[in-house]
Amino acid sequence: MRTIRWGVLGAARIGRTKVIPAMQRATGCAVSALASRSLDKAKAAAAELRIPRAYGSYQELLADAEIDAVYIPLPNHLHVPWTVKAAEAGKHVLCEKPIAMDAAEAWTLVALRDRTGLVIEEAFMVRTHPQWLAVREEVRSGRIGELRAIQTLFSYFNRDPANVRNDASIGGGALMDIGCYPVTLSRFLFEEEPSRVIASIDRDPEFGTDRLTSALLEFPRGQSAFTCSTQLVPAQRVQVLGTKGRIEVEIPVNAPPDQPCRITVDEGRDVFGTGKVARTFEVCDQYTIQAEMFARAVREGGPAPVPLEDSVANMEVIDALVRSARTGTWERPGGSGPAGR
What is the pTM of this model? Predict the structure, then answer.
């Protein structure tokens, strides 16, 4: 099996603490180089993670002929520009979410992928985690009856003015950072697109970012409601409700790599939960799974585990939620593609 040699653009905390160590444990993957705008910073991160090569610019890494694919954990506004530069240099790309600042920008990556034949994917690690595959399996089986509603809470507290998540000009804020998860998971479980959406946004008076966003997505078969925040107590939970039962996902996004995950299926006998059955999943690292599946797509010539068209559709929903908060009305996602610009 051919080993896919990775390069990393940037020394972001999520990369250093979560994604890169997980990629290093992935079968058929080797993290061979890391680049930063500061050579000293790149060398320090590479030494910490035992990465062989360090570069003082992203372009230097892209010029490295021994790199097959790059992982991009840069701030949101840099995702598309550096994905384009990486692909133009012949590198496959795994880019952090959200893959673009809006759906129109995301569409440019579809054209880029089609032109270059490279694997380009948004890093939604939840979409390939065993617990979420199991949730969709339970929904499809009819165990909870017909899926009608999904309720999600995802929040943390961060008012650091130096944190990129608190800079509205580069795509910071709750909706882009963590609201993208309930959007993609709702679409994943309903297996269709919402027909219309509505949102309420409360913005930080200093940063201008959405610090509290609540939204309702109306699907042909039901509804998904979520609240996300960058200035609430850290919490996350998902409830998936059907006509006969429900599923609760205890740690829906930040699934721990060192302990089992659990979902609870309640068959709906009564409100006391006497019909609850827990499903526990063996310890796994969702970032390792993500890297292995991406590497397999590279070796086999694609497609990406989560196609770019899905990423575009997710961004269309986010765009519509932003419009809705501004207009105070329901908005319909879509219309960002080549024919709709």
Answer: 0.95
